């Protein structure tokens, strides 16, 4: 008997059609979005559930977006666009309006130095001549540091020295509110903070207060606690650029993600050339146990 598959995001019909070669497929317009930590938490205790994801294919696109979000916050693009669209420019204008902070030559701090963090570091060091510092659970090898143009510092130094801090650390219980009120107080009042990691790594309410009180200059956020809901205090601030979790949203990258998801699904359900060996499992221990039980 062929397995039945429910597809909730049929954005690329040609990719979905690959599933039809192996399974009975039902398309459904409804869609429930869970972030990866929430999904894995809900699957804990459900024995034998294999979870996969789509890393690597989105690294450069997300790094591009993170850099763009940082620059938009630093140069006050959202504020100035709203000013122009409102017609205010025709009524008033000053030589020093919407002055922001430079990216080139500034100190870029990266909190979380995985694939995306390293890609952002390269863009900063090699593309904009930035002084790049980072903090990570484990220090990278000297060779990787040299390739990224980055220098390891402790977390306190990262907060103190960064002109622009980008948060890319994965979410876990240990990283919940890793950037909170106390951490924000250590940052420069002229600094910007960009979060493209996960909602919950940054305390959104504490960040809103820091923005309102001049604790830091600006922020760029693509992820939020409890998204798609957003902290009302953040929505009230002009000095924050807000985007709806679209860091990987380019056509080619979303196609690549969909294709890899299909590869994982086909293999995880014992079909295709990689039957039983999905390319990117999140919980390989469960996968190994499933293989053992099948023998």
Q: Looking at this structure, what is the CATH superfamily of the largest domain? A: NAD(P)-binding Rossmann-like Domain
Low-confidence stretches: 29-33
The proportion of strand residues reads 5-15%
Strand order within the widest sheet? 5-4-3-6-7-8-9
Number of helices: 12
Give the biggest beta sheet: 7 strands, parallel
CATH class of the largest domain: Alpha Beta
Global outline: globular
- In total, how many domains does the architecture comprise? 2
Q: Helix/strand-derived class?
A: alpha/beta
* CATH second-level architecture of the largest domain: 3-Layer(aba) Sandwich
Task: Output the helix-strand order.
Answer: EHEHHHEHEHEHEHEHEHEHH
Task: Find the CATH topology of the largest domain.
Answer: Rossmann fold
Please tell me about this protein's structure.
With 295 residues, the chain is α/β, with parallel strands linked by helices. It has 2 domains: 98 residues, Rossmann fold; 184 residues, 3-Layer(aba) Sandwich (Rossmann fold), CATH 3.40.50.720. The chain is built from 12 helices and 9 strands. β6, α8 and β7 form a beta-alpha-beta unit. α1 runs parallel beside α11 and α3 packs across α5. It is globular and about 70 Å long. The two termini are 20 Å apart.
Write the layout of secondary structure elements.
Layout: E1 4-7, H1 13-20, E2 24-27, H2 36-43, H3 59-74, H4 77-85, E3 107-111, H5 115-128, E4 131-135, H6 142-148, E5 150-152, H7 155-161, E6 164-167, H8 181-186, E7 192-195, H9 204-213, E8 218-221, H10 232-235, E9 240-242, H11 251-268, H12 284-294
Parallel strand pairs: 1-2, 3-4, 3-6, 4-5, 6-7, 7-8, 8-9
Helix pairs in contact: 1-11, 3-5
């Amino acid at each position: 008997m062929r397995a039945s598959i429910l597809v909730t995001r049929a954005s690329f019909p040609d990719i979905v059609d690959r599933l039809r070669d192996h399974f009975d497929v039902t398309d459904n317009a409804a869609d429930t979005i869970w972030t990866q930590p929430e999904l894995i938490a809900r699957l804990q205790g459900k024995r034998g559930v294999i979870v996969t994801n789509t890393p690597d294919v989105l690294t450069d696109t997300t790094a591009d977006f993170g850099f763009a979000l940082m620059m938009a916050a630093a140069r006050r693009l959202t504020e100035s666009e709203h000013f122009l669209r409102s017609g205010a420019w025709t009524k008033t204008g000053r030589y020093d309006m919407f002055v922001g902070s430079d990216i080139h030559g500034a100190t870029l701090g990266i909190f979380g130095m995985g694939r995306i963090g390293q890609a952002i570091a390269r863009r900063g060091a090699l593309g904009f001549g930035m002084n790049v510092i980072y903090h990570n659970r484990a220090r990278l090898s000297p060779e990787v540091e040299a390739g990224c143009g980055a220098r390891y510092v402790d977390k306190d130094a990262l907060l103190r020295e960064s002109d622009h801090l980008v948060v890319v650390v994965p979410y876990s219980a240990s990283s919940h509110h890793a950037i909170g009120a106390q951490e924000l107080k250590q940052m420069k009042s002229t600094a910007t903070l960009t979060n493209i990691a996960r909602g919950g790594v940054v305390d959104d309410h504490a960040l809103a207060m820091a923005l309102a009180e001049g604790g830091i200059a600006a922020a760029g956020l693509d992820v939020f606690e409890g998204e798609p809901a957003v902290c009302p205090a953040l929505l009230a601030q002009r000095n924050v650029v807000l985007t709806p979790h679209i860091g990987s949203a380019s056509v080619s990258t979303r196609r690549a993600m969909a294709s890899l998801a299909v590869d994982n699904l086909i293999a995880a359900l014992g079909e295709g050339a990689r039957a039983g060996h999905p390319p990117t499992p999140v919980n390989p221990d469960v996968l190994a146990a499933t293989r053992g039980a099948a023998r």
